[in-house]
Amino acid sequence: MRNLGTGKWIAIIITIVGLIILGVNQFYIHVMAKPWSQEQAALEIAQQNAKLASVTHSYKSVWNDTSIYWVIEGNNDQQQPMMVWVKFNQDGTPATGINAVHAEPTAGTITQQRAGELVQKDLPGAEIVRAVPGSFNGKYAWQVFAKSGEHYYYVFYNFRDGSKLGGPMQLPNTLSP
Prior knowledge:
It is a single chain. It is built from two helices and eight strands; from the N terminus they run αββββαββββ. With about 180 residues, the chain is an alpha+beta fold. The chain has two domains: about 30-105, Nuclear Transport Factor 2, Chain: A (Roll); about 110-170, Nuclear Transport Factor 2, Chain: A, CATH 3.10.450. The strands form two sheets. A four-stranded antiparallel β-sheet has the order 1-2-3-4, with helices on one face. A four-stranded antiparallel β-sheet has the order 5-6-7-8, with helices on one face. The model has no long low-confidence stretch (mean pLDDT about 90).
């Protein structure tokens, strides 16, 4: 085997590392293509139905196979803060028909921060892992995921008035056979 020299080995190593990075990047793009296209579809539907002029945040909320939503937060063309729930089917396509899109002004509703504060009444000292707008039993809600002690919980609060819709629901610590 002949000696290639230090410079050629460095070039070979750089090429191999570059190809690995390119492969990982392409895999990531492939894996994320469906969620990105769902989010883009939700943004377009929200902009059409609620006349959103700007978008400040988007959330994906999944509770069960009939409660899959992308929720878009933004301002309408009158600069009124809004939340728009866009329902999706299990196959990742936007739902159609009644209740497929729900737009609601956020003035006078419960904020994400307030939903986290409400959890403290049900689970004192709990750490809020995440709070997203979603749906629970057909009502628009804040879905709060929290950790208290060694356990994780879900608690649902009505988006409009903060009344508790469900929970705290304790998740199992381990999966048993």
